Amino acid sequence: MSDTEAQAGPVLAADGTPLKRSLARALRMQKLRALALIAPLLIFVLITFIAPITDMLLRSVKNEIVVDVLPETVAQLQSWDVDSTAPPSEAVFSAFYIDMVLAEEQKLHTRLGTRLNYEKTGLSSLFRKTGRRVGRFDTDVYTDQIVALDPAWKEPATWAAMMADKADRGALPLTARTWDRWADYLNSEGKDPAKTKVEDFLFTALYLDLAAGNAKSVADPRIAAAAAAAPGFETVDIRSQFAKADKDWLDPAVWQTIKIFSSRFTNGYFLNAVDLQKGPDGIEPRPESQQIYLMLFKRTLFMSLVITGSCILLGYPVAWILANLPSRTANLLMILVLLPFWTSLLVRTSAWKVMLQQQGVINDVLVWLGIVDDAHRLVMINNQFGTIVAMTHILLPFMILPLYSVMQTIPPSYLRAAKSLGATNWTAFWRVYFPQSVPGIGAGSILVFILAIGYYITPEIVGGTTGTFISNRIAYHISSSLNWGLGAALGSILLGVVLLLYWIYDKIVGIDNVKLG
Amino acid sequence: MAVTSSNDTFVEFERVQKSYDGETLVVKDLNLEIPKGEFLTMLGPSGSGKTTCLMMLAGFETATHGEIKLDGRPINNIPPHKRGIGMVFQNYALFPHMTVAENLAFPLEVRKMSKSEREAKVKRALDMVQMGDFGGRRPAQLSGGQQQRIALARALVFEPELVLMDEPLGALDKQLREHMQFEITRLAHELGITTVYVTHDQTEALTMSDRVAVFNDGRIQQIDPPDTLYESPKNSFVAQFIGENNTLEGVVKEISGDHALVQLDGGELIDCKPVNVNEVGQRTKVSIRPERVEVNKDRLQDGAHLLKAEVREFIYMGDVFRTRISVAGNDDFIIKSRNAPDQIRLKPGEQIEIGWLPQDCRALDA
Ligand SMILES: Nc1ncnc2c1ncn2[C@@H]1O[C@H](COP(=O)(O)OP(=O)(O)OP(=O)(O)O)[C@@H](O)[C@H]1O
Ligand SMILES: [Mg+2]
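Output (C-alpha cells, whole complex):
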C-alpha cells in the first residue's frame, strides 16, 4: 500500500504500460461496439430527419432566386437609391430586359414573381404579364442595324467563335456573360448554341457593350467596325418599353422590393413571421390587415397551456386510482386509457364533431332535457372550445402514462406515515404525496405541451377559424401557398419557442425532475 | 410489569378478528392488554399477523370484529391522524423531498405549533438521537442507521403516548442493530412511552422487551416476560421458536404433580416436568435447552435417567462448545457447554451418556 503511494509517476499495469493507456485500449473495443450498434439508427436519423430539418431551416433565410434570375439587374441596382422617388435609370432597365428575356425563356420569371409577391402583392401578375410581352420589345432595331453592318452577325457560328476568343470576351463583358447564360440554357436543353438563331437580346447586350466604348481597341475587324458605328445607331428607350408593358414598372416601390430582397440571405421570412416587414426606412410593422402570425403564436401557446392544464386536472386522479389499485385491475383499466391509441386520430376527431356540433349528440341531449333552448343551441365546435376538448381527449394518455409510472414508485407508507404524524388526508396528500408526483406532472406536461404546440390535424378539423394553431398556417404555406421560406421561418420560431420554454422549465423545475417511470 | 390490572391498561384488544378477503382470518380472536409504559414486542414468523395488528391499532386497517381501546376509549371510529400514535415504519418512510429537520417539524406543523416552539422541539429530538448536526440533510444523504434514528425521532417528536414500530431494525447490520436496540429501549423507558414493537428476531425481542407476545397463525401463543418465555415455554411452538431447542418425541408413562415419566419412541425412559400433558398415554414432545444438557454424570442427582448417545460433531465457537450428538433416534441433538478449563472436549465417534434435571425438560403438546 505505502509502496504504491510512494511510487512517483503514472500507475503502471501488469505489463508495464501506463494504466491509463491500457484502460483506454480496453474500453476502445467496447466503444466501437456500442457505436456499431447505434450506427443504423444514427444514419437513419441523419438522412431522414436531421438533413431535411436543416434544409428546411435554411430555407427560412435563403433567398437566392432574385440574384440568380436577375444578376445583371441586381448589379445595376447597386447605384440606385432605395429611398428614391424616381424609377431607376435606363441602364437598370436594359439589364433587366436581358435578365427578363433569359428568365422568360427558362420560365423562371413566374417563380420569381411568386417569391416577390410574398413581399409585395401584385408582383406575381406583373412579372407574368411582362414575361409575355418582353419578347416583343422593339429591340430588333439594334439587331437590324448591326446585321446591316455585316450579314455575318446573323450567323450563330460567328457568335460562338467570337465568344470563344479571350480578347473579344474581355472587350465585350456583358455580351460574354449573357452569351454564357444563354449557351448554358441551350446546352441543358440539348440544343447547340452555334446553330440556334441569335436572339434580339444578344444584339442588345452587344450594342450596350459597344456603346459603353469597351471595344474601341479590339483586334477583330468586325467588332471594331461595329464599335465605330455604334455611336451613330438609332436607340430604343427600354424603360418606356417596360412602361408600355405595365406602367407599374415606373413605380419605385416595385424596384425597392427587388433591391431589398436581392441579397442571397434574408431575414424577410422571419420578419414576416412576426408581422413585420422591410421597408425603405428599415423594419416596420405590416399593415394591420396582414398581421396574423403573432396572434396565432399567442393563441397556440395559450391553448396548448390550457390543454396541458386540463390534461393534468383530468389525468391526475385517474393515474392516482390506477397506481393504487391491485395490479390486475390496474392493467385492465390501463387498457381503457390506451384505447384511444388504437383508434385512428381522424376517427376520434370526427367523433368529436358528431358529439359537439349544433345538431350533435350533446346539444340534442341538452335540448331534450330542457336545459338549452332549441333556438339557442350551444356552439361547441369549430372554435377554441372544440379544439381544446378534442385535443385534451387525444393527448390525455400522454399525461396519464408518466404520471402513473411515477406514482407507482411512491410507496403507500409515505401517506400512512404522514397520517400517523397527524396530517389530515388532504395535508398528507398535498405536503407528502403531491411533491413526489411532481416529476410525473413535469414529464407529462412537457410531452403534452410539446405535442399540442405542433398539432395540426385536430385544430384543422374542429378548430374553425378561431381554433386553429400556428401549425395549420405552416401546413398551409408548405402545401398550398408554397411559400416554404415563410413556413420554415414559422417552424423555426416554433422550435425556438419550445426550446426556450424547455430551458425555462429546466431553470424552474429542473430537468432531472422529469421521470417517465 | 407483567402483571396487568385493568385500571392501568392503556391499549386493549378485545376479541379482535381480521380478514382481508372474507375467507380466511388473518387475526383470530386476539385479546391483549398493554399497560402504560410497557415495552411489548410482537414476535412471530412471517405472515402471522403482526403487521396487521399494528395497522389496526394505527387505524390503517379496520378490525372485522371486536374492539380496540386506547386509554379506555374505543378507537374503531377515530381516523388515524387523530389517534396521536407515533409510528416507525419498516422502510422508515422519511419524506424524501424534505430535509431531516422538515421531516421532524412536519407533525408539529400540522399541529399548528409556533415556529420557535417547533424549532426547539426539533432540536431536542435530534439531540436525543444524537443527530444534532444533520438537520439540513435530505434522507437520501443519510446512512441506514442514521435514517432509522431520524424515523425514531420523528415518531417521538410530537410526544405521543404510544409508539408503534414495525421491524424498524430489519435493514441494519448486526452491530448497528444491537446499538439501536439499546437506544430504543433507553429512550422508551426514559420518556415513559408505551411501545409496541414488531420483530422477526427473537434475540431482539428477548433483549428489549418487558413482555413478548409470540404470534402464530393469527393467535398469541404466549405472552410473558422474556425469561419466563425462554425458560417456561407453554407449548412446543414457543419452545421451538424462542432460542435453540432439542425435541424428543414419546408417550407419557407416569404423571404425578410436577414430575412425569416419558417413554421415548426408541423405548428409553426420561424424567420431565409436565407442562401441557395431563394424562398417561398422551403423546408429547419433550423440550430441553442445549445448555441444560449434562454430560458429566457427577452433576446429576442419583437415580436420574440417562440416555446413551454418540458424538457426531464438535464445533468450537470460542466462548462455547457446540456438540452435535445422536440420541434416541434424533441426529440433530445439540449440546452447548461453556468453554471452562475443566470442560471436556468430546470427539466425534465417542460414546457418551447424557442427562438433565427433570425441571429443565418440559413435556409439551405433541
Ligand atoms: N392488504 C392485504 N390484503 C390481503 N391480505 C393481506 C394484506 N396484508 C396482509 N395480508 C395477509 O395477512 C397475513 C398476515 O400479514 P401480516 O402483514 O400481518 O404478517 P406479518 O406477521 O407482519 O408478517 P411479516 O413478519 O412477514 O411482516 C398474511 O398471510 C398476508 O398475506
Ligand atoms: Mg409485517
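The two ends of chain B are 31 Å apart (CA to CA).
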